[in-house]
Structures are given as C-alpha cells and as structure tokens.
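Q: what sequence does this backbone want?
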C-alpha cells in the first residue's frame, strides 16, 4: 500500500468515526436533532474527500449532496466508499482519463514501430512516460518544475517511495532510449530496444496510474 493510500484510509477512518460520534449525539439529544455545525462539517469534508477520489458525478458524491440531513446516511456512504476503495473499485477519475489517452498514444507508437519508424515511436513513448510521471507526482503531492526531466521526476518519486529501487533504476535505463531519439542519436539503439521500452511503459502505467 502506497503512502498516499494510507493517508486516504486514515481520512476515511477519521470521517467515519466523526459520523459515528454524530450518530450518538443525535441519539442522545432531547429533541432528536443534530447541531448544524457538526452535520455540515461532516458533510462538506466527506464530499471533498470523495470528489477528489472519484468525481462530482460519482454515486457517492451525488448521494451525499441529495440526501436529507442525516448522519446515519453519511456514515453508510463513507463505509461503502471505503470498502470499494479497499477492493480497488473506486478509481481516480482524472487518472482513468489519462490512462485512456496514454493508451491511444502508445498504440500509435506500436504501429510506427511495426512499420520500422523506431525513432518516432521512441519519441512518443518517452513523452508518454514523462507525462505519466508528472501525473503520478500529483498523487504524491509533488510539485515538479515545468522543465524537470524524466530523471528529475524519477528521483522525486523515488524519494517519496512511490515505487521500488528496481523500478527507479529501470526508468533510468529505459528513458535513455527516448533521450537518444529526442536528441538525434538514432544509431545508439535498435528497434528491439524501442519494443522493450514500449513494453515497460505499458506495464508501468498499468501498475501505477490506476
């Protein structure tokens, strides 16, 4: 489990515990009501978390926005969302869109490679890897510079324990193929090298941008 995932679960647990406390306050009240500040703090924090994890159009957010004021209902939505998150059914909406875009670009790279345009394919794969690393930085609350290279992004993510030392080293090695293509050093790699580069980026994005 990544550092980011642990923080999300801690936030889920914190809000669910607040919802439980609010339910107890409601049960013990003389007039069967819940203080407005308690309810709205819980509701707004829950909507904020679930919007960040999914989207404003997700069923979780819509339930929270449309339900009548009720701490028991908020608790139920949060517990359902937490269970879905743990089972991998709750996906980051922005990363999902990114994965679809990346997939289309990598298909183009594969077609170019099949027609022996290894240099153009390598440049596309390099661009996809860099953009993927930048989006992964967002998940770890890293703010890279606009001119940061793949190597710099890789170092920042590794320091945040986004992936293992093996993946860190593999990014360094594979990115060199793309760097050679981008700087016109076309004789320093072969078509097979680009194919291996493509396979690595496909595997990396599937594992980390999900």
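A:
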């Amino acid at each position: 489990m990544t550092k980011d995932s642990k923080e999300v679960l801690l936030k889920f647990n914190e809000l669910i515990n607040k919802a439980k406390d609010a339910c107890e306050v409601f049960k013990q009240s003389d007039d069967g009501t819940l203080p407005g500040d308690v309810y709205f703090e819980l509701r707004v924090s829950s909507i904020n978390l679930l919007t960040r994890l999914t989207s404003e159009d997700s069923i979780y957010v819509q339930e929270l926005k449309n339900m009548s004021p009720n701490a028991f209902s908020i608790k139920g939505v949060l517990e359902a969302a937490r269970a879905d998150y743990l089972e991998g059914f709750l996906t980051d909406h922005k990363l999902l869109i990114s994965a679809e875009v990346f997939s289309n670009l990598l298909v183009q790279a594969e077609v170019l490679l099949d027609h022996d345009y290894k240099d153009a394919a390598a440049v596309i794969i390099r661009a996809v890897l860099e953009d993927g690393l930048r989006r992964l930085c967002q998940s770890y609350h890293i703010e890279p510079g606009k001119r940061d290279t793949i190597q710099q992004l890789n170092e920042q993510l590794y320091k945040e324990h986004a992936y293992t030392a093996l993946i860190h080293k593999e990014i360094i090695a594979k990115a060199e193929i793309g760097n050679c293509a981008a700087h016109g050093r076309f004789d320093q790699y072969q078509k097979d090298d680009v194919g291996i580069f493509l396979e690595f980026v496909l595997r990396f994005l599937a594992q980390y941008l999900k």
